[in-house]
């Protein structure tokens, strides 16, 4: 068969297929899913039923087990697909065995319903269909492992806002397909070494935030080699150690924010070679070892170190991170910046947060290699001068800059700022200027907005700029309002 005839064949087959599909649509495809129908409202009151694309959506609020059981009885008669069963704000201290027997439920929510116990057989009949289980905001003190173990199709399990104190070994056994497990805001102190045995193959996201952990549960986590996102923020972790994250080779995002970590020791993240985002803000970090980020060289793009107690830009540790785009060092105790602070890794930075530090002086070559910088936040420091020479290397790429809340002195060397604002406006109409940095004109001992410095009094050569002193009352009014955010911001 030659090419012409084979393409003709493909063509005719396509037409035949198209005709078949079309005919099917016209005549109704064979065996379509039967349209789901809600029971009479009276029959399932106080629950409410609506028809959704993939099945029924049943909502039962502020009622009790007796009423819910009765409503479930009505539904059993019709054996519909219940795509969502949402039980909220009920009084349901105990979920009885077989309450959902003969029902096909895909997403089950039992939220804020005083639930403290789930009997072993309460959910066992749902194993074939249930993909999401949300039992958040209840009174559970342990993971209801016996009740969960038949849910072999479950993808998402939400146990947030309960009172779980310990995750026992094999707590999630049987949940072979589980991808997302969230235990946010419990009272977890201990996670036993085999706690996640059984879910290690598929688990992608684990949220242990808002608990009482004092150490990284290293043993338990070490088997989670498919995990992509780990959240352990808002615990009481005081230190992290080399080996703590061993085994989690797939991790893409690690959130350790708002703990009590005081230092980042050498090699602590060295197993996380594909980590993209590391959040360490809101700890008590003072010391970052020069090998603290070792192993993260090839993939780390987002590093959040704000709200710590760092004294200087941890350049030695950062230099190998040649993919770093977003560096957040806000609200630390940085007073001095070394000339080579960004050498080695500055090229890739697009976002740099240095606000709320104690920076008095920017070395002249500081931004020399920051060729991609788009956002620079240096507000709320002690800068009195930001000369043009320093800014020159980044004015082409900058889109957002904030220099407010610095004790700036009005001077010709600051004229780059109004020019940059004008440039930004010309580049993008939507670029609006929100906050105005002010500077002090020493000879007059008077404040001006940097945008409207009286250039003719300053001999800078800008002839058209007209003076526009800020009225003193407005200044006073604005003294606090000058705790301003982004000068230019994109909407
Ligand atoms: C939880 O449910 C109770 C009723 O049982 C209700 O009064 C309360 O507002 C609900 N709380 C939240 C946070 O929804
Ligand atoms: C901040 O750094 C200075 C030295 O630069 C030091 O004297 C001061 O104690 C530090 N503040 C805190 C809260 O550690």
UniProtKB/TrEMBL annotation:
<dbReference type="GO" id="GO:0005886">
    <property type="term" value="C:plasma membrane"/>
</dbReference>
<dbReference type="InterPro" id="IPR032675">
    <property type="entry name" value="LRR_dom_sf"/>
</dbReference>
<keyword id="KW-0732">Signal</keyword>
<dbReference type="InterPro" id="IPR001611">
    <property type="entry name" value="Leu-rich_rpt"/>
</dbReference>
<protein>
    <submittedName>
        <fullName>(Mediterranean fruit fly) hypothetical protein</fullName>
    </submittedName>
</protein>
<keyword id="KW-0677">Repeat</keyword>
<dbReference type="Pfam" id="PF13855">
    <property type="entry name" value="LRR_8"/>
</dbReference>
<keyword id="KW-0433">Leucine-rich repeat</keyword>
<dbReference type="InterPro" id="IPR050541">
    <property type="entry name" value="LRR_TM_domain-containing"/>
</dbReference>
<dbReference type="InterPro" id="IPR003591">
    <property type="entry name" value="Leu-rich_rpt_typical-subtyp"/>
</dbReference>
<feature type="signal peptide">
    <location>
        <begin position="1"/>
        <end position="23"/>
    </location>
</feature>
<dbReference type="Pfam" id="PF00560">
    <property type="entry name" value="LRR_1"/>
</dbReference>
């Amino acid at each position: 068969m030659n090419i012409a005839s084979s393409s003709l064949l493909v063509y005719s087959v396509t037409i035949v297929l198209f005709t078949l599909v079309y005919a099917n649509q016209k005549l109704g495809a064979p065996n379509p899913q039967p349209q789901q129908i809600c029971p009479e409202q009276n029959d399932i009151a106080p629950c409410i039923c609506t028809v959704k694309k993939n099945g029924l959506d049943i909502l039962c609020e502020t009622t009790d087990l007796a009423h819910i059981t009765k409503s479930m009885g009505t539904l059993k008669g019709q054996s519909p697909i219940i795509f969502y069963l949402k039980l909220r704000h009920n009084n349901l201290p105990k979920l009885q065995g077989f309450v959902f027997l003969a029902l096909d439920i895909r997403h089950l929510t039992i939220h804020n319903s005083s639930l403290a116990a789930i009997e072993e057989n309460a959910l066992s009949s749902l194993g074939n269909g249930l993909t999401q289980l949300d039992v958040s905001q209840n009174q559970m003190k342990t993971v209801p492992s016996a009740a969960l173990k038949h849910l072999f199709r479950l993808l998402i399990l939400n146990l947030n806002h309960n009172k779980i104190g310990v995750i026992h070994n094999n707590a999630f056994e049987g949940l072979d397909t589980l991808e997302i497990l969230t235990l946010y805001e419990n009272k977890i102190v201990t996670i036993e070494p085999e706690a996640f045995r059984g879910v290690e193959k598929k688990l992608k996201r684990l949220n242990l935030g808002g608990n009482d952990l004092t150490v990284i549960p290293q043993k338990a986590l070490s088997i989670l080699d498919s995990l992509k996102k780990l959240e352990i923020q808002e615990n009481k972790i005081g230190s992290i150690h080399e080996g703590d994250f061993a085994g989690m080779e797939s991790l893409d995002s690690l959130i350790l924010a708002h703990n009590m970590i005081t230092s980042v020791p050498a090699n602590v993240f060295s197993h996380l070679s594909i980590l993209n985002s590391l959040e360490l803000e809101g700890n008590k970090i003072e010391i970052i070892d020069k090998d603290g980020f070792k192993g993260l060289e090839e993939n780390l793009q987002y590093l959040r170190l704000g709200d710590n107690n760092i004294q200087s830009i941890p350049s030695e540790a950062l230099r190998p991170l040649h993919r770093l785009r977003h560096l957040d060092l806000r609200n630390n105790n940085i007073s001095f910046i070394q000339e080579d602070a960004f050498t080695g890794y500055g090229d890739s930075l697009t976002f740099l947060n240095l606000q709320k530090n104690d920076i008095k002086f920017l070395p002249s070559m500081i931004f020399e290699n920051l060729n991609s910088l788009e956002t620079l936040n240096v507000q709320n420091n002690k800068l009195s001068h930001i000369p043009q020479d320093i800014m020159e290397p980044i004015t082409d790429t900058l889109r957002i800059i904030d220099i407010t809340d610095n004790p700036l002195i009005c001077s010709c060397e600051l004229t780059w700022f109004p020019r940059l604002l004008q440039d930004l406006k010309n580049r993008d109409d939507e670029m609006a200027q929100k906050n105005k940095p002010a500077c002090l004109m020493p000879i007059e001992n008077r404040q001006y907005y940097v945008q409207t410095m009286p250039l003719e009094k300053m001999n800078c050569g800008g002839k058209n700029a007209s003076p526009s002193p800020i009225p003193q009352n407005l200044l006073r009014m604005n003294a606090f309002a000058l705790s301003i955010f982004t000068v230019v911001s994109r909407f």
